[in-house]
Amino acid sequence: MKNLMTTGLGGAAALCLFSGAVLADESLFGYLRGAETLPKGATELVQTVTRRWDKGAGSYTAYDSKTELEHGVTDRFTGAVYLLGQSVNTQGLLIDGYIPRDENSGLRLSGMEVSAKYNFLSPAKDDFGLAAYVSGAYSTLDPYSGQKKDKYTVETWLLAQKNFLDDQLVWVGNLGLEATYAKRKPIDGLPAGFDWPTGPEMEIGVLAGTGVSYRIAPRWFIGAEALYDTEFETEVGQERWSVQAGPNIHYGDKNWWFTLSWLPQLRGGGEKFVAQNDTSLHLIEKTKQEVRVKLGFNF
After folding, report:
1. Global pTM?
2. Helix, strand, or coil here: 73?
3. 72 neighbors 40 (Cβ within 8 angstroms)
4. Residues 59-101 pLDDT 10s
5. Are 135 and 114 in contact (CB under 8 A)?
6. How many percent of the chain have pLDDT more than 70?
7. Which of 94, 127, 149, 157 could form a disulfide bond with 142, CB atoms 3.0-4.6 angstroms apart?
8. What's the Cα-to-Cα distance from 145 to each of 57, 102, 105, 140, 188, rounded to whole Å?
């Protein structure tokens, strides 16, 4: 009986440790973030690939790559560096001010990013999780057209997380503010009358999202997430808004994990272009469909 009790207690402790490792800054969601940070001294390598396609006219497919190296500086503070890449394939589609010509580029290095995340409250220890996240990025390619464009972006986020049913159900809520300064490079041979402004641009974006994830089996989670994204520009006020929502699936092992998310656009507004076939969506900067895959390795 004593041996049995010892074995049972040891197994319960191991299970608790395993559950904590799964939720310690592991991406249950494709687009949203939890409040947990990496343990002190832990390192994580994460590769993210996003496919964006379908603007309701012509042919449009883009891939975004983000390679992240993340390190737990303390149990509450995590820092990360990223390499950014992208490819754009657009044919038979002209959008004034945004897509000036056909483009078919392979994957190219587009920039770099740094971020910091600080945990004020842990969802595992304090019953409710709260963290702040800030990032700064510089990129040299326009994400919509693939043309050359210098872009500086700063994002700040407030991240909330609540775990239920002994960590079987996880809820997150994110609220973010994005500030961007950008300047396009001139392009020769544009169509007559095509607008391609090359002066400095400054934009402010507001982002909000929520999601839930439920553990259906050891190591396996399924869930859903929703993201609201709007952008304001000095000359036009609210330039665009969109709502995306969809399902995700997550698998987490001891040393690695992956997440697959599908986030189609449900509604959108603001600027539109003449040829788009669905006026209930914003399809100048956004697309109808997005799929994201994240693969992480823990060290």
Report:
1. 0.89
2. coil
3. yes
4. 999 999 999 999 999 999 999 999 999 999 999 999 998 999 9
5. yes
6. 92
7. 149
8. 14, 9, 10, 12, 15
